[in-house]
Design brief:
- The protein is an all-beta fold and about 425 residues long.
- Helices cover about 5% and strands about 55% of the residues.
- It has 2 helices and 29 strands.
- An 8-stranded antiparallel beta sheet has the order 19-16-21-14-23-28-25-26, covered by helices on one side.
- A hairpin with a 4-residue loop joins strand 25 and strand 26.
- The longest helix has 7 residues.
- The chain starts with 7 loop residues before the first strand and ends with a strand.
């Protein structure tokens, strides 16, 4: 309301035919639009401020509208309409200089910190409305550009630069993670002369929807080549803002994510279960800065079982040119490194993005010439390897034990054109 009425908001119980006032809160200054999150737990509304005549947008819990959780503030500017993302993780707000909308500020709904700002063209009419599409991909703004109302679409996430030719932009490995020597251990090499931003994820609880015996709470550690811990994470919400900015937030709050900018070199990601928990889990590495340096090699060591508990490594070849890669399944030679229960005879399959079998190998010497020429031939005749030139796209390497045998194995994918 406006003066002479007393501005404020009221909360009603409308569960019966007669609405009952549950809470009344007065506000100073004019009162603006009210927005409620999709889950009904949060609301935002703005009032005119006494300081600098600015409109201020506050966030409240619907359980108590008298106590502000915090304020949305972008560069100390006037705030206007605000709406929630479809999953309520973000708040989008029109902000303005005097009489003209200038930006859409994107806030994390938990921390109320700015994630991103979208600059708008000059606006001459003093009105505007926002909407988010159902996929949470675009923010839509309707405002008066050049004296006429227009509707514009903007991507919510910062677009990822196109991947250069001959690049591995994402690699993931799914295994049944146990304890002790049977954790999931993923190693990768960054090649080049510039730091690279990567995202490492441990996905587990959300795998249960696929009928897998998913681990309840995965934990991630990232080590450098000396073994020193670079970063750790249990639940990704502990650094929510960093994760949201990548567009790679997991579906379950118990899943773990590390966002790190790393110098070229060798790194190891260790995936374990909180308090010794076991179960199926997925370790993923994303190259979110493909314009500099490259992921040259990825390897994962874990226990290989049968059925759904075989080792499955997925990788994406980026760019627009064919890339020569090598996949290896290492087992018996792990014994010399003190690994107990090494898989005696691993087999390797390579599938395309549609699941079609492209190639398979049992003992690498059946294709000795092509494999030996890479300088990466396995040291044991029972180990498997595949060398193929592949078109850009998604691929899967599956490691099994011959005759349904089980044991610890290492699956590796090499980008042979990373130099």
């Amino acid at each position: 309301g406006q003066s002479p009425a007393v501005p404020g908001i009221k909360k009603y119980d409308v569960s019966t035919s007669t609405a009952t006032v549950l809470q009344t809160v007065s506000q100073s200054g004019d009162l603006g639009d009210i927005t409620i999150s999709h889950n009904g737990e949060l609301l935002c509304f703005w009032t005119s401020a006494a300081v600098n005549s600015r409109n201020l947008t506050n966030e409240f819990s619907t359980s108590n509208i008298a106590q502000s959780l915090g304020r949305l503030d972008y560069q100390d500017r006037n705030s206007e309409y605000a709406i929630f993302a479809q999953d309520d993780s973000l708040i989008f707000q029109l902000v303005s200089t005097i009489g003209s909308f200038s930006n859409i500020a994107i806030f994390d709904s938990t921390t109320r910190q700015v994630v991103r700002a979208i600059t708008l063209p000059p606006v001459t009419n003093g009105y505007g409305h926002l909407a988010v599409d159902h996929t949470n991909s675009y923010i839509i703004v309707c405002a008066g550009y050049g004296g006429q109302p227009n509707m514009s679409f903007y991507p919510i996430r910062i677009p990822t630069p196109p991947a250069p030719p001959h690049s591995l932009v994402n690699v993931s490995t799914r295994t049944f993670v146990e304890t002790g020597d049977n954790l999931e251990i993923g190693g990768f090499i960054l090649q080049g002369n510039q730091p690279k931003k990567v995202v490492v994820r441990a996905i587990a609880p959300s795998l249960a929807q696929y009928g897998l015996p998913a681990m309840s709470d995965p934990v991630l550690e990232l080590h450098d080549s000396t073994g020193a811990i670079v970063a750790t994470n249990d639940n990704w919400n502990s650094h929510r803002l960093d994760v949201l900015s990548t567009g790679l937030a997991p579906n379950d709050e118990h899943e773990a994510v590390i966002v790190a900018t790393l110098s070229p070199g060798s790194y190891t990601a260790v995936l374990s279960g909180l308090n010794g928990a076991t179960g199926t889990a997925l370790c993923e590495i994303y190259d979110v800065d493909p314009t500099n340096s490259r992921i040259a090699n990825i390897s994962t060591r874990s226990n290989v079982g049968t059925g759904n508990d075989v080792m499955i490594a997925g990788f994406i070849i980026g760019g627009d040119q064919p890339t020569k890669v090598m996949a290896r399944a290492i087992g018996p030679s792990l014994t010399q490194y003190g690994v107990n229960g090494a898989l005696a005879d691993p087999t390797l399959e390579l599938h395309d993005g549609s699941g079609n079998l492209i190639y398979q190998n049992d003992d690498w010497q059946t294709d000795q010439q092509a494999i030996a020429s890479t300088g990466l031939a396995p040291s044991d005749v029972h180990e498997s390897a595949i060398v193929q030139t592949l078109q850009p796209g998604n691929y899967t390497a599956i490691v099994r034990g011959k005759n349904s045998s089980t044991g610890v194995a290492l699956v590796e994918v090499y980008n042979l054109e990373s130099n």
